[in-house]
Amino acid sequence: MKAVVAVLEPVARLFESINEWTGRAVSWLSLFMVLVTFTVVVLRYVFDLGWIWLQESVTFMHGALFLVGAAYTLKHGGHVRVDIFFQRFSIKRQAWVDMLGSLLLLMPVCLFIFAVSWDYVVQSWSLREGSREAGGLDGVYLFKSLILVMAWLLLMQGVATVIRSLLRLFGQADDIEAQGNG
């Protein structure tokens, strides 16, 4: 069992550290969104100026924040769940719920999103898709690629959750548990 833990735990730690890093990095977009939105409002109402690309940048940042930050939010338990029941469960029952939820719901949905989005993103890249608006942002294809990034990051977090749940179920989660939540 120790050999299995020695292999699985570093995988979970790696996936969680990737999601931690990406989540913290993308969180800065919320500050930039506020600043850019403030700038758009001041330019429009004080100076009677406006640029489509500046307004679109807020939409792109907002989408990127949610797409790339979803796995970070999952890692930290920020997604909606029925906590009224879950918090009353034993540690082992919580592990079962997390593991089965990841295996039966999260991972299949991530794989489905990845599969159905692949051609959509590839087509966007082949066209080097840009904004439909005159004066809008180029690089829409880069933004659409974040759909695949989101699916991949959530899938990695699902794998980490399954590993952590298995370690809890088999009583191997002692101090590993603390490392997974930081």
UniProtKB/TrEMBL annotation:
Residues 33-166 form the Tripartite ATP-independent periplasmic transporters DctQ component domain. GO terms for molecular function: transmembrane transporter activity. Coiled coil: none annotated. One of its GO terms (cellular component) is plasma membrane. InterPro entries: DctQ, TRAP_DctQ. Keywords: Cell inner membrane, Cell membrane, Membrane, Transmembrane, Transmembrane helix, Transport. It holds the Pfam family DctQ. It is found in: Cell inner membrane. It comes from the Bacteria. Its main location: membrane. It is a multi-pass membrane protein. The chain crosses the membrane at residues 25-47, 53-74, 95-121, 141-163. Belongs to the TRAP transporter small permease family. The complex comprises the extracytoplasmic solute receptor protein and the two transmembrane proteins. Part of the tripartite ATP-independent periplasmic (TRAP) transport system. This is TRAP transporter small permease protein.
